[in-house]
Amino acid sequence: MTSTETRHDVLLTVNGVPHRLNLPARRLLSDCLRHDLKLTGTHVGCEHGVCGACTVLIDGKPTRSCLVLAVALDGQEITTVEGLTNPDGSLGCVQQALLECHGLQCGFCTPGFMTTIEAGLKQQPAPTDDEAREMVAGNLCRCTGYQNIVGAVHRAAELKRDSR
Amino acid sequence: MSTQLFGEKVPRVEDQRFLRGQGRYVDDVLVDTPSATLHAAVLRSPHAHARILDIDVSDVIDMDGVHLVWTHEDLAGAMAEPLPLLIPHPALTHGRTQYTLAKDTVNYVGEAVAFVVADDRYLAEDALGRISVSYEPLPAVVGIESARAAENLVHDDVPGNVAARMEQNVGDAPTAIDAAPHVLELDLSIERSAAMPLEGRGTVARWDHDTSRLQVWTSTQASTGVRAAVAAKLELDLGQVDVICPDTGGGFGVKINHPWPEDLLVTRAAQVTGQAVKFTEDRREHFISAAHERAQEHHIRVGFDDQGRVQGLDVEFWHDNGAYTPYGLIVPIITSTQLLGPYKPANYRVRFDSLYTNTVIVTPYRGAGRPQGCFAMERTIDAIAAHLGLDRTAVRAANLIQPDEFPYDQGLIFQDGRPLIYDSGDYPAMLEKIRKLIGWDEFEQFKAEAEAEGRRVGIGLGCYVEGTGVGPYEGAHVHVETSGKVKVATGLTTQGQGHQTAFAQVVADTLDVPMEDVEVVTGDTRRMSYSVGTFASRAAVMSGSAMHLAALRAKEKALRLAADALEADEADLKMVDGSVQVKGSPSNSIALGTLAVLSNPLRYAFDKASQAATQFSVGDQDKPPVDEDDEPGLEGRDFYSPNRSTFASGMHAAIVETDPETAEIKILRYAIVHDCGRMINPMIVEGQIHGGMAQGIGGALYERMAYDDSGQLLNASFMDFLMPYVTEIPGEIDVDHLETPSPLNPLGIKGAGEAGVIPVSAAIAAAVENAEGFSITSMPISPAELYDLRQRHAEHTSTTSARPPKQDGSGEESA
Predict the structure, then answer these.
(1) Is-contact B93 B353, C-beta < 8 A?
(2) What's the pLDDT score for residue B805?
(3) Of A73, A74, B47, B478, which sits with the fewest C-beta atoms within 10 Å of its C-beta?
(4) 3-state helix, strand, coil in chain B (%, to 5)
(5) Which has more confidence, B622 or B252?
(6) How many domains does the structure of chain A reveal?
(7) CA-wise closest residue to A156 among A97, A102, A85, A112
(8) What's B15-138+195-289's CATH class?
């Protein structure tokens, strides 16, 4: 980055870990996560907020990280796919459900689906089939045809209920 | 013997890293060393057709953080020559390829004009904005009609915009049609679409001055192809270039083309700057500078008897190949041959023109010409049924190749230059299955009930045969380490198909080792330097077979070593769960890892296991430590190279409802019967079918490249190019399988990757036609287009005679 660009101090808490960063204003959150914090689990599929691959949770709310400037998030909490794994290293419920249901192929869109489902199940812990489809209706997948992703939403809900 | 894994729904081993966000895709490579990595961006032509008068880069040269800026003038030697024409064909009389960076003219919006490398992508894009190019716009050729009219030419030296003209004949179709009791003519078209993987293209390269070696990571379907192309263009020895295909976010065909201009520019820039250089394509770039497919117009003349048996089929079609032909004629050749599907017309003639337009290049997209061919053939069969007033399944049944007719020679030359001979299949059984699965016989009643409620519903069918597993070959290398772990490599690449799982299943079965001890690497030229690539539904057939053969070699050697070690006859030995055992004497066994130790006579011991392998401990004193016809190590390497392709098949059926007011098209039910021979992992196969079908629905109802007359792509974003979300895909898809093994490979497998997409447009067009009562001849079809068709059809019927509109009529009799 050149010295001519004005930089800003920000504090981002990502997956519970605070990071003090000095960033140019135009740095997208997606680029900040991937390039500054090396959290490459968040993928960029379209850079215009349509595909949902880059979805992360900002203070628990699913958000397209390619449409947000990192400097605008000073003091906020961000959860990425890397933060969905249990503290003991085992797969979280949503991750486990996608594994069991073969809900992924190339894995590129998967992180965005998982953060979306993670947030969705907080709102609707026992979704109907229509609700499960609605939950993932803003994310594009080019591999799976979605059948097994919808199945994974139900399975994740089950796993979450069982783990309580 | 442990449980056989072949045929089991084994969970995928690659998922662990993908689910944890630990996949390593090309844009993730070297992210840990950001200061050492530079970033590239490409200035692209804003004109579809123009002469470049001047390029001024003076404002960029002194920019902070910019390391280099190149135009065509900065390239030399092979880099300054046009890109390779990958698949030359004798019929491709006027093949043309683009330059790495445009020289003198540009021929599509998106063609690479200048290249910048900077500290980061933001700065590289800033720099692009400061490059000034003056163009003299030329008239653009957009669409097949404009290409055929040839009032303007894409390339001055290509008359009529015709890159190639090709014809194949079986028997004498024109004469047979003239002699047939019934004749129909149809015009059928399919629009441009694209593979559109969620990860675009990307390449990272690092040049090592100390060893004079180039390391390349690229999101490709053919790493050995990229290696050869980069070596040729950079004028390096093949042995100086390593190409690795990391985790890849989908390909669906578009990543088979190579080298992309960026592959060459990035690798050269890495050499020149001495730093790693990365190019990551953005979505708009993918729309305007990767590749598209599908656009074709077909004219069909068919002669048939009273039972609907095709006596002569004459097909002429026009293929839009875009501005250049790097991938040759593969797509139209596939259409021209695979159009026949499961049928056996007595006489067949096919002719096509492959035409230049000032649009993005055309290379195979999942299905690769088959969706168009299937659409043309299935629409024709439906038209025959409508004309004769016969059930559409009855006309299909009358034309099907029968199970006792295999191997069936269609009398044509296929895309691989080999005869189009179907190896196996059972199409009548498949037709029966799909009829039951969709409820064909019950549909008339459902339709009557729906119509009584003012609803419009329709049913349609699409049948296809897909040549899969084309040659020339793939190989595999199996290495049993002294730990007993089995390291396996094949050269073709993976874009999400689960190869690490499927191939591990094959190897684990052949060697009888636990699946978790098998680790598969794909697409790394350091591990397997001979390979062709991942396309044409060939990975399971080609590399799966090679895996089996290579593992058999390792097994032979393990048994030979074990016979010595156990002082037993090889015939009395068997592999059991990671060791070799004397039959009937389980305690008399030796672990594969120990055999690996024994296979490599050592001078130096470095651990306990290797102590057992030093020359003082091993071997017959009267023989050399490594026999003349042997080599050290417990390894197996082999290649699978079939005589010709193996032919998978399938049938799809759709029930749709069309809204009488809004003309919205809704899929009520969808059923699939699929035959890819023996399935290695049915879970993976079903996933492939689901995904293919979803892409097919995109192609049938939503996806099209909207070019305006000046060659601007108006919908180059996911906002406007409508890929299906979950809301566009039916909630339930019924899938049934038939498994007719291929006799051509040791595992009896056929390819499954592309199948799901092939007949979707055909089936949905048929269903919409059945619901509406007038012909559907062009896909995709939007609600607006269906609405217009209704209007036109209403006008047509009100201005013609009082004759009631013909139900399901899709063509006019011309004889």
Answers:
(1) no
(2) 40
(3) A74
(4) 30, 25, 40
(5) B252
(6) 2
(7) A97
(8) alpha beta
Per-residue pLDDT of chain A (164 residues; tens, 9 = 90+): 455 789 999 999 999 999 999 999 999 999 999 999 999 999 999 999 999 999 999 999 999 999 999 999 999 999 999 999 999 999 999 999 999 999 999 999 999 999 999 999 999 999 999 999 999 999 999 999 999 999 999 999 999 999 87
Judge whether residue B71 has pLDDT over 70. Answer: yes
- B367-470+644-813 under CATH 3.30.365.10, yes or no: yes
Q: By residue range, what is the domain housing residue A63?
A: 7-83
Q: Do B14 and A107 touch (CB under 8 A)?
A: yes
Is residue A98 within 8 Å of A112, Cβ to Cβ?
no
Instruction: Determine contact: B452 vs chain A, CB below 8 A.
Output: no
Question: Do A120 and A143 lie in a common domain?
Answer: yes
Chain B hits for A100, CB-CB cut-off 8 Å, are: 11
What is the pTM (predicted TM-score) of this model? 0.95
**Is B496 touching A (CB cutoff 8 A)?**
yes
Are residues A107 and A126 located together in one domain of the fold?
A: yes
ipTM of the predicted assembly exceeds 0.85: yes
> Using the beta-carbon criterion (under 8 Å), do B198 and A51 form an inter-chain contact?
yes
Task: Write out the two tokens for A90.
Answer: 């085992």
Annotation: CATH topology of B474-640: Aldehyde Oxidoreductase; domain 4 (3.30.365)
State the pLDDT at residue A11.
98
pLDDT over 70 (residue B34): no
Are A67 and A126 in a shared domain? Answer: no
HSE toward the beta carbon, residue B581, CA cutoff 13 A: 14
Answer yes or no: is A88 within a domain. Answer: no
Question: What phi and psi, each to the nearest 5 degrees, are found at residue A61?
Answer: -100, 130
Residues B13/B500, Cβ–Cβ less than 8 Å: yes
A95 → chain B, closest CA residue? B19
CA distance B35 to chain A (A): 10
A63/chain B closest Cα distance in angstroms: 17
Q: B222: closest CA among B241, B205, B202, B245?
A: B245
Alpha helices per DSSP H over chain A: 29-31, 93-101, 110-123, 129-135, 147-163
What's A112's domain CATH number? 1.10.150.120
Confidence of residue B563 (pLDDT cuts 50, 70, 90): very high
Q: Do A140 and A112 share a structural domain?
A: yes
Which neighbouring-strand residues pair with B580?
Answer: B575, B590
